[in-house]
Design brief:
Length: 358
């Protein structure tokens, strides 16, 4: 569905946000990404969009002429702000939010949407950066509201909280109205079982077994109330509750940080839940911690499964090595979350156009 509402996609990655924006009927005519494999993935799935491959700072400094459009959207790299990283304010990746605003200044869109980690909107450590960003947006003529959203509220089978800085030109904007508009796109999330069960077992043509990292027991397991929250196994890949949603998929998937799934529980709802029983035994002190390899029924999620958990279309094509593809998927904005945001933005853009023409 193509409309006369046009957009530029920055830090496009594999195109997760673009899937959502295009589904909402927004015409993404130009995009920028630096990673080679992500660019190849983007081109494969978005042949109609012109892609500039390279550093966004070179794009700005070399005076590349950008198309005049209605919307600028994108998610600058978040590692510098993330609690999962070093939270270094001097991290070069942290400075890319200013490059985003530089493009906004250059093309003067009606609306911009910048996605990032929740920490940028919440932590006191980033209050100065946050206020500076909002003030700069105001200088450029945009009233900007940061909204923290959880992907699981919009049908995504993943507990993933992110902030969306939404800036609108020539119109009043407030968080209450934005959240009210988003409410109509909120829906019961799909469970992991509902999302993945149709794929069947891993190591098949439709669901290749793409991560072979071994799963071994932690000799000193860290226990929490939930069997899916502690550290029962070595590495950072925690088990997924197939009747719930996953934790945030990390960009570091592909090795022992890849989430774990019990394939028997996934395929057969009535079988005993091995992970739950093991966790219960450890909590009750009725069993001792195991050593060595975990049962074969436990495995890492595949690329196909990770892609569907991020709500990419089933036929989406990824390019690059397995590690690169896992990274592209983990870095993406869930497509269905992007669709909800884009749908609200599209309506605001229509209202903005009507206000200007009156």
């Amino acid at each position: 569905m193509i409309t006369d509402i046009t957009a530029i996609s920055l830090f496009a990655g594999a195109g997760g946000m673009d899937v959502g924006f295009k589904k909402a009927g927004i015409n993404v005519i130009w995009a920028n990404e630096i990673d080679k494999d992500a660019c190849n993935t983007y081109r494969k799935n978005n042949p109609e969009t012109e892609l500039f491959q390279g550093d966004i700072n070179l794009l700005i400094n070399e005076g590349v002429i950008l198309p005049k459009i209605d919307i600028v959207f994108g998610g600058p790299p978040c590692q510098g702000f993330s609690v999962a990283g070093k939270m270094n304010p001097d991290d070069e990746r942290s400075k890319l939010i200013w490059a985003f605003l530089k493009v906004v200044e250059e093309v003067h869109p009606k609306i911009f949407v910048m996605e990032n980690v929740k920490a940028l909107a919440k932590l006191e450590k980033w209050q100065g950066v946050r206020e500076q960003f909002l003030n700069k947006a105001l200088e450029l003529g945009y009233q900007c509201v940061p909204l923290i959203l959880n992907a699981s509220d919009f049908g995504v089978p993943q507990n993933r909280e992110r902030v969306f800085f939404i800036g609108v030109k020539n119109m009043g904007l407030n968080e209450i109205n934005l959240r009210s508009s988003l409410n109509q796109y909120m829906t019961k999330n799909r469970t992991i079982r509902e999302t993945l069960m149709h794929l069947g077992r891993a190591d098949t043509e439709i669901n290749p077994k793409t991560c072979t990292a071994k799963i071994t027991f932690a000799s000193n397991p860290i226990l929490r109330k939930s069997p899916y929250a502690g550290m029962l196994f070595n590495g950072m890949g925690r088990p997924i509750n197939v009747d719930g949603v996953s934790n945030t998929l990390p960009a570091s998937m592909g090795g022992n940080k890849t989430p774990i799934i019990d394939e028997e529980v996934l395929l057969y709802p009535n079988v005993d839940n091995w992970i739950v029983e093991y966790h219960k035994g450890l909590l009750d002190n009725t069993i001792e911690a195991k050593f060595g390899d975990a049962p074969e029924r436990l495995r890492r999620i595949t690329i196909k499964e990770a892609s569907l958990i991020q709500t990419f279309p089933r036929d989406y094509i990824f390019e690059g090595s397995k590690t690169s593809i896992y990274k592209q998927i983990g870095n993406a904005v869930p497509c269905d979350l992007a669709y909800a945001v884009a749908s609200v933005i599209k309506n605001i853009c229509i209202e903005n156009n009507e206000a200007i023409t009156k």
